[in-house]
Design brief:
Length: 250
C-alpha cells in the first residue's frame, strides 16, 4: 500500500529531504492569497517539510498524513503549536469537516493519490473559491550530475522510474483533468547543496531506494559516494532542482 511505502524512512526523510525556496512561499502568500488567517490542509504532509514553512507564516495548518512513522515526526516537531493539528487519514478521505479549509497543499505526494477520489475530497473540504497547490522538488534532468544520478538509481532502485517518477518530467497538460483545464504553473530554481552524508541520506529516504539493511544498500552507497567524489566542489555537491508548482480550482 502507498501508505506504507515510507515506513522506516521517516528519520532520513526529515533529516535529508530538501525544503522549498523562499520565492515559492512568497508566491503563495503574495500572489495566491495565503494569509495568516487562512486555513490550509497540507495533505500527505510527510514529516512536515512544507507544513513548517506554512506555520512560520502564521497560517493554521491541518497536517494530513496516513503513515505512522511520518506522524511521529510531525508530533515531535510541532507539538504544542496552537495553529497546527495532525490528522491521521488518507488523502482521499481526510475526515476534515465540509468547507473547512481555504487552501489545500500537496508536496511531493500527489502521485501516490487516487486522483479522482482526491478531487472529490478536495471539493468537499474546500470553502467556495478554494484552490489546490501541487508542488514538487524535481531534479533538473538536463544536468550531467542528474543523468549520472539516474543511472545509479536505475541500477540499484528497483522501483526507480527516472524522469517519470514523482513530479519530475511531468507536463502541465497532464494535470488538465484534475484542474478542469485551467492551471497556473510556476517554476522556481532550487539548487540544493549536499554533503556526502546528506546526499546518501536523501536517496535513502526515497520510496524506490532499498532500506539500509537491504543487501543492495551497500553497493548503492558505494556508487553514490563515487558519484559525489566526481562532482563535488569543496566537499559539496550542488544538486540542481526546480520547485514546480501547479495551482487551480477543482
Amino acid at each position: 500500500m502507498n501508505t506504507e511505502k515510507f515506513t522506516g524512512k521517516a528519520d532520513n526523510y526529515e533529516k535529508y529531504r530538501p525544503s522549498y525556496p523562499k520565492e515559492f512561499l512568497d508566491y503563495l502568500y503574495g500572489e495566491v492569497g495565503f494569509f495568516g488567517e487562512k486555513t490550509i490542509a497540507d495533505i500527505g504532509a510527510g514529516t512536515g517539510k512544507l507544513t513548517e514553512l506554512l506555520l512560520q507564516r502564521k497560517s493554521f495548518v491541518y497536517a494530513v498524513e496516513p503513515n505512522a512513522d511520518m506522524r511521529e515526526k510531525l508530533t515531535e516537531k510541532f507539538s504544542g503549536i496552537s495553529n497546527f493539528s495532525i490528522v491521521s487519514a488518507p488523502a482521499e478521505s481526510t475526515e476534515l469537516p465540509a468547507q473547512s479549509v481555504d487552501f489545500i497543499t500537496v508536496a511531493q505526494a500527489f502521485h501516490w493519490f487516487d486522483a479522482e477520489k482526491f478531487k472529490a475530497e478536495c471539493r468537499r473540504i474546500l470553502k467556495p473559491g478554494g484552490k489546490v497547490v501541487l508542488v514538487w522538488n524535481s531534479r533538473d534532468e538536463r544536468s550531467e550530475i542528474v543523468k549520472a544520478y539516474d543511472e545509479v538509481c536505475f541500477k540499484f532502485g528497483s522501483a526507480f522510474k527516472g524522469a517519470g517518477s514523482g513530479g519530475r518530467g511531468k507536463k502541465v497538460d497532464e494535470y488538465a483533468d484534475f484542474y478542469g483545464g485551467k492551471i497556473e504553473h510556476r517554476v522556481f530554481d532550487n539548487i540544493i547543496p549536499l554533503t556526502l552524508e546528506r546526499f546518501i541520506g536523501d536517496v535513502a529516504s526515497k520510496s524506490y531506494a532499498p532500506n539500509e539493511n537491504d543487501a543492495n544498500f551497500p553497493p548503492l552507497k558505494a556508487a553514490l559516494t563515487e558519484l559525489f567524489e566526481k562532482y563535488k566542489e569543496d566537499n559539496i555537491l550542488k544538486m540542481p532542482f526546480f520547485t514546480m508548482s501547479y495551482l487551480g480550482e477543482v
